[in-house]
Amino acid sequence: MFKFFRRIRQNLLSEGKTATYFKYAIGEIILVVIGIVIALQIDNFNNGIQQRKIEQAYLLSLRSEFKTNLDKLNNSIASNQNYIQAVEHMLTFFDTDVRDTISEGAISEAIYSVFSGSPIYKPSMGVVTDIIRSGNLNVIQNETLRQKIASFESNLDFLKSQESAIGERHDIMQTHLNKTGSVRKVLLYKGMKLEHQSISDKLSNTEIFNSI
User: Fold this and answer.
1) Count of Cβ atoms closer than 10 Å to residue 44 Cβ
2) DSSP code per residue over the chain
3) Which of 4, 18, 107, 143 has the most neighbouring CB atoms within 10 Å?
4) Average pLDDT over residues 123-128
5) Sign of CA dihedral 85, 90, 93, 95
6) Is 0.85 topped by the overall pTM?
7) Which of 129, 128, 116 is nearest to 62 (CA)?
8) What is the chain's alpha carbon radius of gyration, rounded to the nearest angstrom?
């Protein structure tokens, strides 16, 4: 093709048709530019198709991951509500009139509900992390969704700081329980078989509620 165009230009020059030669050369340049533009458009179109395929795969994976995260969140909320109720119930034991009407077993049950563990939320992060670390966040066309994905991890950091603060207070209460009450008695009332007896088995856990 290029040899054919070169031969035409050479013929025009040899025949002294300079003006025609320049017109032809300009036309040839324009033709090449048009070809480049068309090629770029085709390439961009193909890239666009590939980008949409990647986006579609990410969106499907995100939907699956966040369905799982939503289930985890709902379970965590339910557990947290039960935990709050257990704490509120235990707080009533600081009232002498209430505490004197409750059995040691009921107190042990309440203590176990509070100290056996506090609910936490640990969502799956695989797809979100992959999108961000791979640099493919811009593949997501929806701007609002992009912003939510970008800020999701930082929002979790705030949640973790709250959980950490609650954990510190939980540890303070646990220390108070260990010093003033009997964890062994709680475990015994929960049916756990302990191999050896201890002097703390005779302690009453009502005593831990004498100190605010």
Assistant:
1) 11
2) -HHHHHHHHHHHHHTT-HHHHHHHHHHHHHHHHHHHHHHHHHHHHHHHHHHHHHHHHHHHHHHHHHHHHHHHHHHHHHHHHHHHHHHHHHHGGGSHHHHTTS-HHHHHHHHHHHHT---------HHHHHHHHTT-GGG---HHHHHHHHHHHHHHHHHHHHHHHHHHHHHHHHHHHHHHS-HHHHHHHTT---SS--GGGG--GGGGGG--
3) 107
4) 93
5) negative
6) no
7) 128
8) 37
DSSP string for 2-37 = HHHHHHHHHHHHHTT-HHHHHHHHHHHHHHHHHHHH
Residue 183 CB neighbour total at 10 angstroms: 17
pLDDT of residue 41: 76
In this structure, the number of other CB atoms found within 10 A of the CB of residue 110 comes to 20
CB atoms inside a 10 Å sphere around CB 139: 19
Q: Whose structure tokens read 């198709």?
A: 49
Greatest mean pLDDT among 145-149, 158-162, 208-212 lies in: 145-149
